[in-house]
UniProtKB/TrEMBL annotation:
<dbReference type="InterPro" id="IPR004792">
    <property type="entry name" value="BaiN-like"/>
</dbReference>
<keyword id="KW-0285">Flavoprotein</keyword>
<dbReference type="GO" id="GO:0016491">
    <property type="term" value="F:oxidoreductase activity"/>
</dbReference>
<dbReference type="InterPro" id="IPR036188">
    <property type="entry name" value="FAD/NAD-bd_sf"/>
</dbReference>
<feature type="domain" description="RsdA/BaiN/AoA(So)-like insert">
    <location>
        <begin position="191"/>
        <end position="345"/>
    </location>
</feature>
<dbReference type="InterPro" id="IPR023166">
    <property type="entry name" value="BaiN-like_dom_sf"/>
</dbReference>
<dbReference type="InterPro" id="IPR055178">
    <property type="entry name" value="RsdA/BaiN/AoA(So)-like_dom"/>
</dbReference>
<dbReference type="InterPro" id="IPR057661">
    <property type="entry name" value="RsdA/BaiN/AoA(So)_Rossmann"/>
</dbReference>
<dbReference type="Pfam" id="PF22780">
    <property type="entry name" value="HI0933_like_1st"/>
</dbReference>
<keyword id="KW-0274">FAD</keyword>
<protein>
    <submittedName>
        <fullName>NAD(P)/FAD-dependent oxidoreductase</fullName>
        <ecNumber>1.14.13.-</ecNumber>
    </submittedName>
</protein>
<dbReference type="Pfam" id="PF03486">
    <property type="entry name" value="HI0933_like"/>
</dbReference>
<feature type="domain" description="RsdA/BaiN/AoA(So)-like Rossmann fold-like">
    <location>
        <begin position="8"/>
        <end position="398"/>
    </location>
</feature>
<keyword id="KW-0560">Oxidoreductase</keyword>
């Protein structure tokens, strides 16, 4: 068992935010000890972006984040930008490419990012206890004392970088949230976000046969000024809907509320059907099949009680209008979501109300910091969550 080291900064959680904060604080001359209970380092980075880690988004800005206080993330994001992280990758000779709307991925897999963060930590002498569990955290007059499976350790400052609740089988825990509550912090109710949505078996039965089908849609949720829309790909699954469009809207969806999907966003369908009616020889099913996957058009017509073999000229205007509306404004109310096992991030977390937006330090307990996903700042899909991890870690290291 190692002797209790003399350190300036303790960090619980050696994931994206914890590793980056440790490296940054080490560069500023602080002696840092990182503690993580998982057997393997940074599992979420490893599995991220389908194994290629969508490590940032060129366009990342405050508008891409959800929080009770949407302005909270502003300062940290402005002081550590996507370009700063790109420069770090370039320093380490790590190749990357842009996939879609500013999303940057590693050419050679996410392992390169983990190695880079590890190297950055080792270069400045960061110590790491892993796997190591923390049994208790005590506030002292001049800092914090941790009782851990590797012994007791003290330091003037403590950073909580334990992440969110998604994917418990690779180390996620509610430790950070409980610790926040121990020090009197409010926690905004955590909910799975960037998660597939599910429907009751009965209501989904007609669409289950579409499983695996993907198409570009506009999906929206919310009312009035709160209404949010995304133009992205949607994927039908056996239990409901997934794909980037659904993951994005899931973060905005409120249980019990409907979502609305435009299955043909680039087409004025009502006008197109009216025009097609002029061509009497074409059948309704074939016409629809020109604009959307045949499987979907067949299922849809069946659902609407319409005969796809009917010639366009014989279709009633009213039926065509109803058909157009059903495809352009498909309203459906999810029964739920796929939960923490499938969510990519957590909505909610440690309330920003009593944290400094400059340093992420607790206003209740000097020397205590919360960074990364454990904080009530949740990014959209597309590299924004890692950018928050890097930016909040950087802000904290400057302030610690
Ligand atoms: P993170 O989860 O990285 O680290 C927390 C660490 O704390 C873990 O190592 C954990 O073991 C440790 N810990 C937890 N409880 C502890 C305890 N009690 N004691 C000690 N240690 C403890 N984002 C993005 O921007 N681009 C992407 O491509 C993806 N892809 C993606 C795919 C999948 C499948 C998931 C689940 C998530 C993503 N994300 C993502 C989200 C991204 O992974 C996430 O937002 C960041 O990893 C958050 O960084 P943190 O450091 O805050 O938590």
């Amino acid at each position: 068992m190692p002797a209790s080291p003399d350190v300036d900064l303790l960090i619980i959680g050696a994931g994206a935010a914890g590793l980056f904060c440790a490296a940054q604080a080490g560069q500023l001359g602080l002696r840092v000890l990182l503690i993580d209970h998982a057997p393997r380092l940074a599992e979420k980075i490893r599995i991220s972006g389908g194994g290629r880690c969508n490590f940032t988004n060129r366009e990342a800005g405050p508008a891409n984040y959800l929080s009770e206080n949407p302005h909270f993330c502003r300062s940290a994001l402005a002081r550590y930008t996507p370009q700063d992280f790109i420069a770090l990758l370039q320093k380490h000779g790590i190749g990357f490419h842009e996939k879609h709307r500013g999303q940057l991925f590693c050419d050679d897999g996410s392992e390169r990012i983990i190695q880079m963060l590890k190297d950055e930590c080792e270069a400045v002498g960061v110590q790491r206890w892993q796997p190591c569990t923390v049994a208790a955290v005590h506030a002292l007059a001049d800092g914090f004392e941790l009782e851990t499976s590797q012994g007791t350790v003290r330091a003037p400052s403590l950073v909580v970088a334990c992440g969110g609740l998604p994917v418990p089988k690779i180390g996620a825990s509610d430790f950070g949230l409980r610790l926040a509550q121990q020090f009197g912090h409010e926690v905004v109710t955590p909910r799975p976000a960037l998660v597939p949505l599910t429907f009751s078996a009965e209501s989904w039965a007609p669409f289950a046969e579409l499983s695996g089908l993907s198409l570009e849609v506009v999906v929206s949720a919310g009312q009035g000024k709160q209404r949010t829309r995304f133009l992205e790909d949607l994927l039908f699954t056996h239990r409901g809907l997934s794909g980037p469009a659904i993951l994005q809207i899931s973060s905005f969806w409120q249980p019990g509320q409907p979502i609305e999907i435009d299955l043909l966003p680039s087409l004025d369908l009502a006008a197109a059907l009216r025009e097609a009616k002029g061509n009497s020889r074409k059948q309704l099913g074939n016409v629809l099949g020109e604009w959307m996957p045949a499987r979907l058009s067949q299922t849809w017509l069946k659902q609407q009680g319409l005969d796809g073999s009917r010639p366009m000229a014989e279709c009633r205007d009213k039926d065509l209008e109803t058909l157009a509306r059903s495809l352009k404004q498909w309203q459906l109310t999810p029964a739920g979501d796929e939960g923490w096992k499938k969510a990519e991030v957590m909505r909610g977390g440690v309330s920003t109300r009593e944290l400094s937006s400059q340093t992420l330090e607790s206003r209740r307990q000097p020397g205590l910091f919360f960074i990364g996903e454990v904080v009530d700042v949740t990014g959209w899909l597309g590299g924004y969550n890692f950018q928050w991890a890097w930016a909040s870690a950087h802000a904290c290291a400057q302030g610690a």
